Amino acid sequence: MYEKIFTKYDPVQENLIYILHDIQDTHPQHYVSEEAVQEVSDFLKIPSSNIYGVLTFYTMYSTKPRGRNIIRLCESPPCFLKGSEKILARLREILKVGIGETTPDGLFTLELCACLGVCGNAPVMMINDDVYGNLDENNVTAIISGIRGGQE
Ligand code: FES
């Protein structure tokens, strides 16, 4: 199932994190399944326990199905000081999920993350690969509505 990804890499352990990234990025539910771990284990000839070790060490990986859109709200101090708590409260209210949870329609997963490197625009969140800065309770609502409207 992942042959297309495997053809891009030499079967060496140094490529593990890149392979896992590709698998997660191309999965519609943004996660690395048990089946994927087994296939990577066969491809790299390393035990699946080593792969799970990497998957659980890095917060960017998930072993559980997630939403089509991954929201990562920055919780580092500059964003916190600029009101990321209020943004989080608004996101939880709009989406009706807690941190780490996925909306029942499978559209959004809400996560927290460390500095995204654009502190000048704090508070900041990423949705998939897009960065949204200078958030307030109004524009965050509009951003979510816009995505929802485009994908329902
Ligand atoms: S602290 Fe939030 S982007 Fe840097």
Note down, in words, how this protein is organized.
- A hairpin with a 2-residue loop joins strand 3 and strand 4 (130-132).
- The chain has helices at 3-6, 16-26, 34-44, 48-57, 77-81, 84-95, 137-151; strands at residues 69-74, 108-113, 125-127, 130-132.
- The protein is of the alpha+beta class and 152 residues long.
- It folds into two domains: 3-57, no CATH class; 69-151, Glutaredoxin (3-Layer(aba) Sandwich).
- 45% of the residues lie in helices and 12% in strands.
- The protein contains seven helices and four strands, in the order H-H-H-H-E-H-H-E-E-E-H.
- Helix 6 runs parallel beside helix 7 (137-151).
- The model has no long low-confidence stretch (mean pLDDT 95).
- Bound molecules: FE2/S2 (inorganic) cluster.
